[in-house]
Amino acid sequence: MNKILLMGNPNVGKSAIFSRLTGARVMISNYPGTTVEFTQGQIKIGDERPIIIDVPGTYTLEPTCKAEEVAVNMLKEGDVIINIIDATNLERNLYLTLQLLEQDIPVIVALNMWDDTKHRGIHIDIKKLEKQLGAPVVPTCGLSGEGIKELVLRLPEAKAVKAPMASDAERWEKIGQIVEDVQKLTHRHHTFLEILEDLSIKPLTGLPIALGVIYCAFWVIRFIAENLIGYIFEPLFGKLWLPLMIRLSALLGEGSFLHHLLIGNLIDGTINFGQSFGLLTTGLFVPIAMVLPYIFSFYLILGILEDFGYLPRLAILVDNLMHHLGLHGYAVIPFILGLGCNVPGALAIRLLEERREKFIAATLMAIAIPCMAQIAMIIGLVGQRGGKYVAIIFFTLFTLLVLKGLILNKVLKGASPEILIEIPPYRMPQVKAVIKKLWMRLSSFLREALPLVLLGILFVNILYALKIIDFLAHIFAPVLTGLWGLPKEAISALIVGFLRKDVAVGMLGPLNLTTKQLVVGTTILAVYFPCIATFAVLIRELGIKDMLKSALIMVIVALSVGALLNLIL
To answer: Collapsing DSSP states into helix, strand and coil, what is residue 160?
Structure first.
């Protein structure tokens, strides 16, 4: 036994069981499609340490999207399959189980979410189910760990059933017989969460609830972030870090190369963490004190909504609107993930079925969905000039999202498919799971963003020292100054935008721009090109040809929007 595959329908708890079996940290959420790439770890069974692989969810062995293709391709590599079944939805899950039993691979079935069957009045006879399937069946609960030990102990009992290949009709007929034989339902009254499930999916009540949820989510995000900045991070930097930097500045001497690199420029004779642009001043202050609080609060709220099971219902509610943009409602999931960081948003585009949908979703996200780090910088920098200027930027981005979607939907051949999505039940989020996911996302941000921020600042300081910025500013002056009305020094922000857009927005601060120039500059930085990490993922998801087409659209949009804003503001 060298490789064990965890296979099952989307959103049945595969990642939770993978985490229990291997101790690995993986993202777990209450909506289908959380796992779009396979993840592997090791499990200890006696003296053996086989590899265990968390395979993306699939409903059948006939793939309909990229994530399901990955799942089916993994099948031939497995020595044993742990088939994870949602015990509260036995009938739907058994179709994949019967297909797996037709393969010549040993199978053991984990009847997951076993705790929920008791709440829902569902009674399943395990012995009868084992007899019907011809494979061992173990009831489990991935979140609490119930049944995991028994699952590991019974792994050696897994065997190849070698069931004869059947047609779709024959499989469904057999599923009906199995469910009738092993499952009994008892009457019970609807719970409060089930009543809320109904209310939040019907348009008449669901749309007001959705508006309320979105408003409250962003109000709480801002409230938490601004209080963290005002009461914790700014005092820490001001009282503890600033005195050290002042001493270092005096030691290095203003005007020296090292002072310019580590401390940056003194603004009115003192260090300004937002504008000095040294590695130890702006390089640490921006990602930690200005951006991290917003990342923390956004991912906290997103984790709660994910684990509660609200996002798929939002996808259903916006389905009609998204069809006008050439997408179906599930595209709202990559967009929401993109608000945190565009990289997971770009990965989630894999959940969309058609090439046309992926192209539209990727182009719209790259142009009109700024990441939370960039949003924090826009609020921090432009917000000082007045809330209405922040509103102008986000209204422009929203208008671009709608207009670009309408145009691409008209121009590109084909039509957006109907949404086929499983709606999970509402579940109260577990504090431990939410905190674990929050920590994974925060540590990922610090691990990936902080080096890029420092690299970006170092890169620009070197370009300044070598006079390359001056040369590029002269070359692009007709566009920067003539078309967009920006000073030619803004070229440095556009260059750094390829690495980190939040840093690029911060670089507009020391340029002493007028409010109009600041609005034009931050809007252009949002739409002109994705950061390098998102660009790399989009090339993999779209292919080089479609990515180049998408990039061309972004450049044209940036040129047009910058010129228009410069004209009308």
So the answer is: coil
